[in-house]
Amino acid sequence: MPNDYGPMFYGVELPENGARLLLVIDTSKSMGRKDSARTDGGTRWDTLLDEVTGMTDQMAEIIARRRVCYTVSLLYEGGDEPHAGTTPFDLSKPGTAKALLTELRGKTFTSGGSFEHTFGETLWPLVSKQHITHIIYLGDNDIGRYGETPARAALTAWYNLPRKNPTADQRDLFRLKSAWWEPWKGWRRPTAKRPVFRSQQRLPPPPRDVVFHAIAIGQKSPFLKEMADLGHGEYVERLPAKRRK
Question: pTM score, two decimals?
Answer without folding.
Answer: 0.92
